[in-house]
Design a protein that fits this description.
Blueprint: E1 2-4, E2 16-20, E3 23-27, E4 33-34, E5 36-42, E6 49-55, E7 72-80, E8 83-90, E9 95-101, E10 112-114, E11 122-126, E12 129-137, E13 143-150, E14 162-165, E15 174-181, E16 184-191, E17 199-205, E18 213-214, E19 231-241, E20 247-255, E21 269-277, E22 283-285, E23 294-296, E24 311-313, E25 325-326, E26 334-336, E27 340-344, E28 358-363, E29 368-376, E30 380-389, E31 392-401, E32 404-413, E33 416-424, E34 429-436, E35 440-445, E36 448-454, H1 460-463, E37 470-476, E38 481-492
Antiparallel strand pairs: 1-23, 2-3, 3-5, 4-25, 5-6, 7-8, 8-9, 9-10, 11-12, 12-13, 13-14, 15-16, 16-17, 17-18, 19-20, 20-21, 21-22, 24-38, 26-27, 27-38, 28-37, 29-34, 29-38, 30-31, 30-37, 31-32, 32-33, 34-35, 35-36
C-alpha cells in the first residue's frame, strides 16, 4: 500500500505504542493542556482513532501554575499481564509517575510516583521484574540513560539506578526504550534535541544492564541533512513488531511551512516508517535512514486505505476526546450541546500566564483550511483564536461595549499587541471565518475582510516551547455566556511531490 506521513496530524508529539488484544494503542504528550495524554487505537497501524485520554482527573494531572509547554512530557505505554501502564513526567511538579488500567476504555488509576529523576521515563517487563529508565547523568556528570528495578505495585525503587548507555555524543540524550529481540536487548534513544538536529540512535547488548554496543551507522534515522525538505526534526522513536511479524518505527517529526522556510507551527506530529533487520540482527529504518512523506510498502495489505479526515464540526467531534482546555477544566464555564457550546468568561484572559482562561481548543492539523463559526455575545468579548501560547496568538473577536458591538482582529506576537482592524457591526451575532495556507491566515467577519497574518509568528522558532497551534473558542472580560454554533473546519490536504515538498 501507499500511505502519507504524518499518520497522526497536528500537535501530538512523543508517540509511544504497544499492542494488545489484536489492536495497537498509542499515546502522546499533552504539555499544559487538560485532559492529559491523548490515547489512540488502531487495527492497521495507519488509521488511528482517539478513544480518550489517560489523565482525566485533577488528582492525576495537577497543572496549577504550569508554564506553557510545561506539564506532561513524553509518555510511554506498555501492556503486561493483562494491564496497561502509562508512565510519564509532570514537569510542573518535577515528578515521574505512572498510572494503570485493566480496561483501556475506562478510567486510569491515580498516579504512582517513582523517585528517579530525569524525563522521558519508560518501563520494561521481564521475568516478573519491572525495569524503569529515564535520562540523567552518570557518575562523571555525562549524559546517560539510567535504569533501576522497581516494585510495579508501589513504585518503590528496589535497586540503585545504573547508567547503562551514554549515547553517541549528541546533545540532549533522551527518550530511552528497551526491547528484547531474539538474543539481544536493544536500547533506542533520541539525541540532538527535538529540533532540526533531532535523530534516533540505538545500541544492543546481551545483558539488560549492558554493556551496549552502538549501531555502526548511527543515527539510524534523521532528516537533519535534508535541507529544503518539508519533514524535519524526526526523532523520539518507538519500535514495535506488528501482528504479522513486521517491524516499524513510530516517531515524531514536524512539517516546515515551505521548502526553504524553516518555521513550523502545527507542532510535532506522529510519523511511521518501516524497519528492516539484516542477517546480523542490526536494523535500519526508512529510506536511507530518513523519513519520507509518501511511503510505499508491501508490509501492509493493499486492501487497507488511509483515511485522512478533512471536515471537523461540533457534530462529528467529541467534546471529551477531540477538544482540550488550558491547564484545567471548570465545568461551570461551559455548556455543551450537539451543535453548540456556550462559554462563560472568568477572571482570566488568553494573555495571562499560568492561568485558566475560558477556552476550548482543537489542534490545527493541516496548513490549508477554511473555518467558520457563528458567535453570539451578550457582554464582554468572545471569539476564535489561533493559539500557540499566551504571548503568541491571533484573535478574531466580537465585543459588546456599552450598547455597541464591534469586531476586531488582534495580533499578539511577543510584546507586540496590534489591532489590525476594528469595525462596528450593530448586532450581537456574527459569522467569523479564517482561511489559511502554509504561509498566511486570512480573517473575515460576515464575509468582510478583516486582515491577514503570517503563520511564522506562531511558529516554534518564534514562540519557543514544544506545542503547536490550537484553534480555540474563548470568552473573556464578561459575566455571561457567549454562544458558539455552526462550527465547520474544512481542511485541504495537499498532495506531496516526489522531491519532498508540497505541490502548489
Amino acid at each position: 500500500m501507499i500511505y502519507q506521513n504524518p499518520i497522526i496530524r497536528g500537535y501530538y508529539p512523543d508517540p509511544s505504542v504497544c499492542k494488545a488484544n489484536g489492536k495497537y494503542y498509542l499515546v502522546t504528550s499533552s504539555s499544559h493542556y487538560f485532559p492529559g495524554v491523548p490515547l489512540f487505537q488502531s487495527e492497521d497501524l495507519i488509521n488511528w482513532e482517539q478513544i480518550g485520554y489517560c489523565l482525566t482527573k485533577k488528582s492525576q494531572l495537577p497543572l496549577n501554575n504550569a508554564d506553557s509547554s510545561g506539564g506532561i512530557f513524553a509518555p510511554t505505554i506498555r501492556f503486561n499481564n493483562g494491564r496497561f501502564y502509562m508512565v510519564t513526567t509532570n514537569t510542573t511538579i518535577g515528578k515521574n509517575f505512572y498510572v494503570y488500567t485493566d480496561d483501556i476504555y475506562s478510567e486510569w488509576s491515580d498516579p504512582i510516583i517513582v523517585n528517579q529523576g530525569g524525563i522521558d521515563p519508560s518501563l520494561y517487563f521481564e521475568n516478573s521484574k519491572t525495569y524503569f529508565m529515564s535520562n540523567g547523568e552518570d557518575n562523571h556528570g555525562k549524559s546517560a540513560i539510567l535504569q533501576c528495578e522497581i516494585d510495579i505495585n508501589t513504585g518503590e525503587i528496589l535497586t540503585d539506578a545504573k547508567a547503562i548507555w551514554g549515547g553517541t555524543g549528541g546533545r540532549y540524550l533522551e527518550s530511552p526504550h528497551l526491547y528484547k529481540i531474539n538474543d539481544y536487548y536493544y536500547l533506542t534513544a533520541a539525541e540532538g534535541g527535538t529540533e532540526y538536529g533531532h535523530m534516533v540512535t540505538y545500541a544492543r547488548g546481551k545483558n539488560i544492564y549492558g554493556p551496549f554496543t552502538p549501531y555502526d551507522n548511527n543515527p539510524v534515522l534523521t532528516n537533519r541533512n535534508l535541507g529544503g525538505y518539508i519533514v524535519q526534526g524526526v526523532g523520539h522513536a518507538e519500535l514495535i513488531e506488528d501482528y504479522n511479524g513486521n517491524w516499524w518505527l513510530f516517531h515524531l517529526g514536524f512539517r516546515q511551512i515551505g521548502r526553504w522556510l524553516t518555521y513550523h507551527h502545527l507542532g510535532r506530529e506522529v510519523f511511521l516508517m518501516p524497519v528492516t533487520f539484516d542477517d546480523n540482527g542490526w536494523f535500519s529504518v526508512g529510506e536511507n535512514g530518513t523519513t519520507t512523506q509518501i511511503v510505499e510498502t508491501d508490509l501492509i495489505s493493499k486492501d487497507i486505505t488511509q483515511n485522512l479526515k478533512k471536515i471537523y464540526s461540533f457534530e462529528n467531534t467529541d467534546w471529551k476526546k477531540d477538544w482540550q482546555f488550558i491547564r484545567e477544566f471548570n465545568d461551570n464555564n461551559y455548556e455543551f450541546g450537539n451543535n453548540s457550546i456556550k462559554i462563560k468568561s472568568n477572571s482570566y484572559t488568553l494573555d495571562d500566564n499560568k492561568t485558566i482562561p475560558s477556552f476550548i481548543g482543537i489542534r490545527q492539523k493541516e496548513f490549508d483550511f477554511d473555518l467558520s463559526v457563528n458567535i453570539k455575545v451578550y457582554n464582554g468579548e468572545a471569539g476564535v483564536t489561533l493559539y500557540m501560547d499566551e504571548d503568541h496568538h491571533y484573535d478574531l473577536i466580537i465585543e459588546k461595549l456599552n450598547n455597541s458591538y464591534n469586531v476586531a482582529l488582534i495580533l499578539n506576537i511577543g510584546d507586540i499587541k496590534h489591532t489590525v482592524k476594528q469595525m462596528y457591526v450593530g448586532k450581537s451575532d456574527v459569522i467569523l471565518r479564517i482561511k489559511a495556507n502554509a504561509l498566511n491566515y486570512e480573517f473575515y467577519c460576515d464575509n468582510i475582510f478583516m486582515g491577514k497574518a503570517q503563520t511564522r509568528y506562531l511558529s516554534k522558532e518564534v514562540a519557543g516551547g514544544f506545542t503547536g497551534v490550537l484553534i480555540g473558542l474563548f470568552a473573556q472580560r464578561g459575566e455571561q455566556f457567549s454562544e458558539f454554533t455552526d462550527f465547520l473546519l474544512n481542511y485541504d490536504i495537499k498532495q506531496i511531490g516526489g522531491d519532498g515538498y508540497y505541490d502548489v
